Sequence to fold (371 residues):
Amino acid sequence: MKLRDRQEKVEKMLSFYKSSKSGPFQEDTTHVRGQVDFLGALLLMDGLDQKNLDAVNRSGIRTGVDSRFIFETTIGQKDTLVAEFLASQKGKEYGDDVLEMPLSLAKLSYTANVNDWLSVVAIPIGAQCRDVGVASNSINQLGKGLTDVSSFGPPLLNLHSGSAIGITVRKSNVIGSLAQCIAGLGMSSGSDTMENRSSTFAQLVCQLPSGTKLSVMGLQQVPFSPRQHTKFGALTIPIVLSKQHEANEAVAEALPLVGTKKQMSTGSIAMMVESELDGFTKLGGWLEIKKLNPKSAQWAVTMSDVYDDSFGWGMSLSGMIGDSASRGHFQAESYLKFNMGNKFCLKPGFTYVMDGNSKIAGLVLRSNWSL
Fold:
């Protein structure tokens, strides 16, 4: 009898907590998604030197394996908490035979949908401009093409920006996004992967008739003072109120700057167009101009038919145009897509790169597996 009484008490307590809505996580649901991306390439070139290696890096041929695990939790009815864990071989130096891929937290974000026309996103870890911008249907998609150039759109969308907070406003057929990012405050003093900088990102998207989408975006980056070498912990933003900071700056300005690299504000502006030619074929293109070299521009045009049928295809042309002082770059790629079930696809293709005096041809195999 005592055991039955305890069981009834436990059931009453559980029913009370289930019916209570006092906490924000009472009705949360978590979805787990996994993605494994593989890219291998057989490259034909005139020599194994730094010139050809730089050409391969600029072409976005990042061979190796990426494994992503995404935990998406719905809080309440509108808010979303996302944690992304990544284990990657890509980006390693050539000749690195280490197969270890430690799993680490790559991104953490919280999106609050205030109402139908306003949403706010906060990303304390692993922010990129694409995370706070308006998503693209045809270009901004993991594994869309063979290389990074044909998969991820303008390069400014892929810059790692540290921590970010942004807002998105929707009105009729126009969407605007504005975000502020801070990068490098939590990096170690010996790290050169991310410099200390503050970035402002803005994007305006207009839905035109006949299924065409026009997007204009800009990024302004301002580096922190090169004299300040103190490193704080991650997620720490120091605010200096003392006048001692000004005195230290005056002393530093009086000293000769020997071997220091001049830092200046940088930025980019880009325009992206997407259109659906029919019910299956999509055409997209983008153009990006950097502030430091406004006479040159990077561009790409993509066309694809990669719906969920058993067969698809895609092609891309990209390059860099500008003054004679800039290094010429042109790249072409095409591929076929074979869907083997709903979660696995295989994409064999061909790519050709001209970068200055380097000419590289390659057979590329890419596969995506969704878990």
